[in-house]
Amino acid sequence: MDRTSLLKKWLPGLALVLLAFVSTPAHARNEPLYFALEVRRDGRLIAQPKLLGEAGRTLRAERRRPGATVPDYRLVLTPKGEGDSFQLQVDLSLPEGEGHSQLALLHGQERKLQLGRVPGELEVSLLLMKVDSPEFRALMRLTEPATGTVKSVSSSI
């Protein structure tokens, strides 16, 4: 088989693969994400994790005191990019119980979830941001003003 016939045979398939990749919207690909959470049990703050993850990949976090056999909490986030929003599955386990929720969030959106049997029993506040967005940089104070200048950053979420 010569190069020309091999090229004619494989070129259409390669073109389809490239077209599928290029036509996939950037927001549907695995995108780095930042999560800021507050977990409250009966109104008392018990955890405040800040995590970096990626759309399309499950993120697991756990806090365990030295020598403890049971973690203080175990958190599992499963984000998936869907158009302009992110579908998120949240699973939280505490020694006293557990909770589960599914929701859709936009970049920069914050939501409160009730995971307990009654409102206020187990509450999670969740903020999702795309990493390296102007809002994320403002939140992380990654943009520093030049010496001798004053810079004001505002963000609406």
TrEMBL record:
- What is the superkingdom listed in this entry's lineage? Bacteria
| Keyword check for Signal | yes
UniProt keywords (A-Z) are: Signal
Show which residues constitute the signal peptide.
1-28
- What is the protein's given name? Lipoprotein
**Which species?**
Corallococcus coralloides (strain ATCC 25202 / DSM 2259 / NBRC 100086 / M2)
Provide the taxonomic classification.
Bacteria, Pseudomonadati, Myxococcota, Myxococcia, Myxococcales
